[in-house]
Design a protein that fits this description.
The chain is mostly helical. The protein contains 1 helix and no strands. It is globular and about 35 Å long. The mean pLDDT is 87.
């Protein structure tokens, strides 16, 4: 599990901004998983699967 926290960001807290941050996090995580040669990319999808939070 990961947490992304931008306390100093001047960007608005909007869905597109959060999705962009999660896409970057997914890309970095996938790169590490592949560098470590994890089996089946540790279950990570090629592209991030972003779902809205339940209300």
């Amino acid at each position: 599990m990961a947490e992304l926290d931008f306390r100093w960001s001047k960007l608005p807290d909007t869905t597109p901004i959060r999705e962009a941050h999660l896409t970057i996090l997914h890309s970095a995580t996938l790169a590490v998983v592949r560098k470590l040669d994890c089996e089946d990319d540790a279950g990570l999808a090629e592209k991030p699967v972003l779902k809205p939070l339940p209300e």
